[in-house]
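[Automated response] Your request has been received and processed.

Submitted sequence:
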Amino acid sequence: MYRSKLDFDSGVFVLKFLEILRFGDNISNAFSHDDVRNIRVQIVNELVFNKYNTADTSAVKNYYSPGHFSRSSHSQNVA
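Generated structure:
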């Protein structure tokens, strides 16, 4: 079983291990520390966009605007 390298990753590991155990999969090599960032995004998406979530999610849905993160807009802002 993999152990967390950082104290603040333990919650991510617990949630992922519970998910893996729920489906009866082998947890020995299921994921590594390199996967933690993607797992965090997965957990947030599952919580925010869950059909039972009644909170206003417009801030998340409208966060990205086309062109905001493109290379062309970045290169124009760099002097």
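Summary generated for your ticket: The chain has a mean pLDDT of 76. The chain has four helices and no strands.
If you did not submit this request, please reply to this message.
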